[in-house]
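Bumping with the actual sequence this time:
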Amino acid sequence: MSITCEDLLRLRNFQKIKLRAGQEGLGAMVTWPYVGQTASVANWVHGGELLFITGVSHAAADLRNILRECVQKKLAGLVVLVGNEYIQKIPEDLIQEAEEAAFPLFEMPWDVKLIDVTREITDKIVEEQFTRKLADNFLSKLLFSTEVDYDALAEQAVINGINVQEKVVMAVFNLQRNASGGGVENIADNSLEEKLQQTLQRLCRDKGLNPLTFVYGNHVLCLLSATSVEACRQQERYLRVVHSLLRQIFTEADCYLGIGRVYTGLRYVRYSYEEAKKALELCKKMRQAEQVAHYEELGVYRLLLKIEDREEIRQFYHYNLDPLLSYDAKNNTALTDTLRAFLLANGNLAKTAQNLFIHRNTLVYRINQIQELLDKDIESAVVRLDLFNSLLAK
């Protein structure tokens, strides 16, 4: 995982520094400490840096422009050295502006050695990067290597301080831009995936959990482990809570979550991963409101997913639904969707009409059309089962 401004507060030298504003932004990721010695810093940073201002090149009056540059360039935070001949104190209006922007603004006493603070931050970032690479390498081998010596991999995990218990389960997060974010499409912005990974780690850590996470394309993979199946189940339940929080944070994207089954031993992590991927893809296709799918809860979908001959599945649903599908395509109607709503409501006309926002008489007319096109008695439980399974297969 990466370092955030909140993590800095626990460092020995940084504890001498006071947070003056922007507590809500403490989750910002810190990529590196940077000491600004020019009138403007916008051309010298990439975003994510923690900026230190000594006052040598800036007066207190210049801080407002510096703060706005920091916010615009999406820096992690601003540290102002005070109590010297350059900047006596941070102006109150600057504190207010930082608070409104939820941007961390710190006040650092002049007698605290800047070199000690920046070196401590740098060491922490390098240490975390090294730890993350070890974890990424471990998960990458576990999930994607063709030949794996699981005993050797387990020993490597112990040596590198990677804590993986006997019971394991995989979860996969995926972000897709929603309508408010400019159309539904896969997001290729790796920084967003890393931000999701960082937020996921922070929320889990607050609960005393430390899952292994790995950014893979536009997915964030998450390995949970525990000493018992029930403990894994508890982690899964909390992961659903985390997912709900992530949806509130990443409003520009739809956040989906797929969860595999619990297995015993590292060699079965890949099984859980494949299940989590299948659950995730199915969840996205079905556009489920909760945007979470657990492989164990997929019902008949689990059986359909096990059938390797996809053509057999296609023939099954075409045999039962073709007249309806053809009619909809030719006449730009939605009889197939009406049938789905009718079956999901267990044949309750009033509930179906309510769910479709149509009059009951309109629904009755459509149901008669469906029966005529299919030439089937949809009052029959067996017929309904075949039709519903056909819709699921499709």
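The tokens above came from a reply further down the thread. Residues 182-190 have pLDDT under 50 and may be disordered.
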